[in-house]
Structure formats: C-alpha cells, structure tokens
C-alpha cells in the first residue's frame, strides 16, 4: 500500500508542477478560464496515459542493470518529492522525469548498482536538444499562424473566436501528449514490477499496467486541479507577456515534440526519415514550454522577457537535478 501512496503523492505533485504547461499560456493570454481548462486537462491526460504511457515508461527499467527491490524504490522517489515541493514553493516548474533519473543515478552510485551511462548520455542529449528545437518550432509556428490569419483576412472578432477554439482543441491534444509523458514519469519507476500485488490488511489488490496508468493520471489531474493555478499564471505571464497567437504556437510546439517522443508508431516513422534514431522517453514539458515562450519573445527582441524570473528558471534546469542527485546519494549513505 505504501507504493500506491507514493505514486499518488508524486502524481499530485506532477499535476501541480506540469498541469500549467498545457493551458498556462492560454490562461496567461486570458483566452481560457482555469476552471474550464482543468476539465479538459483531466479527461485527456487520462486518455493519453492509458494509450501511450507504456512506451516512455520502458526507459526506467533499462537504466539500472540490476533493478532494486520494490521496497527500496521509496529511496528514489523521496528525493524527487522533496526537491519538487521546494521548487513549487518558489513557483519554479521542474522536470519530474529528469529528477527521477538523477535520483536513480544517485541511488545506483551509493548502492554500487550497475547503471547504463550510455543511456543517460542519450537522455541528456535529448533533454538539451528538445528545448532548442522548441525554441525554433515556436517561432516557425508563430509565423505560420500569422500568415494564415492574414491570408484569410480575418477580422478581430473572427481571430478571437478561432484562436479560442484552437486553444481548446490543441490544449486537449497537449494534455493527451502530457498524459503519455507525465504518467510514464511516475509509473515508469514501477514498470519492472507490473503487475503489482498490493496487500492492504486482509485485502489483495492486483494492480495491472492499465490500472496503474489510470490511477497515476487521475491523481495528476487532482494535483493540477488543487495546486496548478499559480504555476499556470507563472508560465503564462511572469516570463513574458503572452498573446493569443503565441499561446497557440506554444501549445502546438508541445504537441509536436511530446508526441514525437511518446508514440511508438510516430517514432518508428520518424526513424525511417531521420539521420539518427530517437526512442520513447519522458521529456520535460516545463522546459519545452519555457523554451517556446522565449522563442516567441524573440519576435520583439526579448524586450518583454522578464530577466529575473527567466534566469531563475534557467538556473533551476541545472540545479534541480544536482540537488536531487545529492539528496538521493545522502539518503543512500544514511541508510534511511
């Protein structure tokens, strides 16, 4: 039962941390109210989890050659929960998947567990590459959306209506993509143990893969409902002022990148046309969102970027994984 409580806790934290990434830009641009956004978020994140989360989840079982006993998994999860709660306190979105993997790394070193360093290097490569990709895709999409608006000669009321509808539609698709990604971040750590047999008093609960993804995604939705509104305002307004067209470009950028690294059929197709191979991995939706916002801000030569908060977020990309690694390592030393 303790394992289920840990999953629920981490899922709520993930929902609070990453729920903002889907509709944060739409809320920040005042095109969508939070209470409506959260309903769409919960429905589609559950669908994405059930359909696609199994693909990026596989990364976790490949990182450790000798996977730890299930009773030791809490030593990996606790550092992630502690550091993520602290980052939320300062309203800084973090990457749960990165934190988990660096916590696994710290656990592996202190316990002399064989760790796949080559896989970690590939993950770091894609973690660096995807925000850069998001920066340029968001710029391209912004040009494209503006071109379509000018081509059809839409008036202000038509633009407002079309953008509002598009934000809802693409927000739902982005929630679906996040359902694959975020649920994999949480449940992936338990992937070698599925199906889980959990005993609570005299009752035996058999938790299948599908049930665990449903459970994880549902609590992500609860976390977003209860805690993500302030983070949504941070994502949408404190980094840079977000206009409706930019909000739409940011959402589509999220969808393109997250689906490309979570849907196996799409990955198989991309590997046929790309000069290198990609694979299903949990990515940082927070980093993709941030890079997209900065990409949009480049239109105005970064004049509207708020430097203090922007620098704080960039520093957190490096500091949070380091702090998680150190905390995980210390937990291992003191034998909690």
Short description:
The protein has 336 residues and is mainly alpha-helical. It has helices at 2-18, 20-28, 34-52, 54-63, 73-89, 96-110, 117-151, 156-187, 209-227, 229-238, 244-260, 264-273, 285-297, 307-333; strands at residues 196-200, 203-207. The chain has one domain (2-333).
List the helices and strands and how they pair.
Elements: H1 2-18, H2 20-28, H3 34-52, H4 54-63, H5 73-89, H6 96-110, H7 117-151, H8 156-187, E1 196-200, E2 203-207, H9 209-227, H10 229-238, H11 244-260, H12 264-273, H13 285-297, H14 307-333
Antiparallel strand pairs: 1-2
Helix pairs in contact: 1-5, 1-8, 1-9, 2-10, 2-11, 3-8, 3-9, 4-8, 5-6, 5-14, 6-14, 7-11, 7-13, 8-9, 8-11, 11-13
Q: What would you note in describing this structure?
A:
The chain has one domain (2-333). Helix content is 74%, strand content 3%. The protein is built from 14 helices and two strands. It has helices at 2-18, 20-28, 34-52, 54-63, 73-89, 96-110, 117-151, 156-187, 209-227, 229-238, 244-260, 264-273, 285-297, 307-333, and strands at residues 196-200, 203-207. Helix 1 (2-18) crosses helix 9, helix 2 packs antiparallel against helix 11 (244-260) and helix 5 crosses helix 6. It is globular and about 65 Å long. It starts with a helix and ends with a helix.
């Amino acid at each position: 039962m303790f394992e289920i409580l840990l999953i629920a806790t981490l899922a709520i934290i993930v929902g609070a941390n990453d729920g903002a990434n889907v509709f944060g830009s739409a809320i920040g641009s005042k095109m969508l109210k939070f209470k409506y956004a959260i309903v769409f978020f919960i429905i589609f994140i559950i669908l994405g989890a059930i359909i696609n989360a199994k693909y990026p989840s596989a990364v976790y079982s490949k990182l450790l050659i000798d996977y730890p006993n299930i009773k030791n998994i809490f030593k990996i999860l606790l550092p992630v929960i502690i550091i993520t709660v602290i980052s939320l306190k300062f309203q800084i979105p973090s990457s749960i998947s990165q934190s988990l993997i660096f916590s696994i790394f710290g656990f592996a070193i202190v316990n002399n567990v064989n760790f796949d360093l080559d896989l970690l290097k590939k993950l770091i490569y894609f973690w660096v590459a995807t925000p850069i990709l998001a920066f340029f895709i968001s710029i391209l999409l912004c040009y494209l959306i503006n071109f379509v608006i000018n081509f059809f000669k839409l008036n202000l009321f038509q633009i407002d209506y079309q953008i509002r509808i598009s934000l809802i539609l693409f927000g739902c698709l982005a929630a679906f993509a996040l359902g694959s990604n975020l649920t994999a971040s949480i449940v992936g750590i338990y992937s070698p143990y599925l199906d889980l047999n959990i005993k609570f008093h005299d009752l035996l609960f058999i938790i299948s893969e599908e049930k665990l993804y449903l459970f994880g995604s549902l609590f992500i939705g609860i976390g977003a409902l209860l805690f993500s509104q302030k983070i949504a305002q941070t994502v949408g307004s404190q980094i840079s002022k977000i206009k409706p067209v930019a909000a739409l470009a940011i959402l589509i950028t999220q969808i393109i990148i997250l689906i490309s690294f979570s849907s196996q059929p799409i990955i198989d197709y991309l590997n046929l046309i790309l000069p290198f191979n990609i694979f299903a991995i949990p990515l940082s939706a927070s980093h993709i969102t941030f890079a997209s916002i900065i990409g949009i801000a480049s239109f105005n030569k970064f004049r509207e970027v708020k430097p203090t908060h922007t620098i704080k977020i960039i520093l957190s990309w490096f500091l949070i994984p380091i702090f998680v690694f150190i905390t995980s390592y210390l937990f291992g030393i003191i034998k909690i």
